[in-house]
Amino acid sequence: GIQVEQSPPDLILQEGANSTLRCNFSDSVNNLQWFHQNPWGQLINLFYIPSGTKQNGRLSATTVATERYSLLYISSSQTTDSGVYFCAADGGGSYIPTFGRGTSLIVHP
Amino acid sequence: NAGVMQNPRHLVRRRGQEARLRCSPMKGHSHVYWYRQLPEEGLKFMVYLQKENIIDESGMPKERFSAEFPKEGPSILRIQQVVRGDSAAYFCASSPPDGQVYEQYFGPGTRLTVT
Q1: Could you tell me which residues come within 8 angstroms of residue B75 by beta carbon, excluding any fewer than 6 positions away?
Q2: In chain A, which residues have their Cβ closer than 8 Å to the Cβ of B100?
Q3: Cα separation of the two ends of chain B
Q4: Under an 8 A CB cutoff, do A31 and B103 touch?
Q5: Which residues have a Cβ under 8 Å from the Cβ of B74 and sit 6 or more positions away?
Q6: Spacing of C-alpha B62 from chain mean position
Q7: Partner of B30 at 20 to 30 A CA spacing, among A50, A108, B4, B104?
Q8: Among positive and negative, which fits the CA dihedral B80, B85, B91, B95?
Q9: Cα–Cα distance, A88 to A25 (Å, whole number)
Q10: What are the strands, taking DSSP E only, across A8-91?
Q11: pLDDT tens readout for residues B47-97
């Protein structure tokens, strides 16, 4: 199956800073999603983005399928952005999603 | 427009007991996935079901674990004779039956503690 790697594993920011989270995958993707797991454990859909660019408020994402990576941009970060960000993708002949290990983000006031 | 529902949210079982976790998908969704998350780790796929069919159970342990998604009612993940290593958060996700698009929506999870 497809391999998914995320970087950085940990990120600490001051409120108001911008950040870029990266997701590399090992094969062509059918489906790719970004999730935010908040401190209460809830998984929140951010983007469904197997290719192209999308924006939602302070968040945006870009997937370059031909180069096998996706980026999640967080601008003007807020303390409520804290949590773990996961990338999940399926491909390489399988429709079963593989999750990366996540990027743990802490935003300080 | 209710999202994916899971119950119970927290479950405590003694070693050797059975755990039953329930998942009701979003309205109109016919695909259900179960995942397990250990502390400080990502989600690991367990099983993928459609109504009355197990499509892929490659991530589920061969013994003690079973899953079903009956024609009526929620999907059930059953763990028999639980052991301490089964303690984890179990998440269910559902997706719509739309061709090749498998955007998943997650429930709040069930946190299983085995004492």
Answers
A1: B22, B23, B24, B25, B32, B34, B49, B67, B68, B69, B92
A2: 30-31
A3: 37
A4: yes
A5: B5, B22, B23, B24
A6: 15
A7: A50
A8: negative
A9: 9
A10: 10-14, 19-25, 29-37, 43-48, 52-56, 59-64, 69-74, 83-91
A11: 999 989 999 999 999 999 999 999 999 999 999 999 999 999 999 999 987
In this structure, of A4-8, A92-96, B71-75, the range with the lowest mean pLDDT score is A92-96
Beta-carbon neighbour count of residue A51 at 10 Å?
Answer: 12
Task: Fill in the amino acid letter for A74.
Answer: I
Q: CA dist A83 to A18, A22, A103, B40, Å?
A: 15, 16, 8, 12
- Interatomic CA distance for residues A47 and A60, integer angstroms: 8
A42 touches chain B (CB under 8 A): yes
Distance CA A40, CA A66 (A): 35
- Which of A37, A34, A13 shows the shortest CA–CA distance to A22? A34
Q: Are strands B43-50 and B31-37 parallel, antiparallel or unpaired?
A: antiparallel
Q: Is the pLDDT of residue A17 over 70?
A: yes
Q: How many helices (H) and strands (E) does chain B have?
A: 0, 11
Q: How far apart are CA A91 and CA A105, in angstroms?
A: 27
- Tell me whether residues A41 and B108 touch, CB distance under 8 A: yes
CA–CA min distance B42, chain A (Å): 5
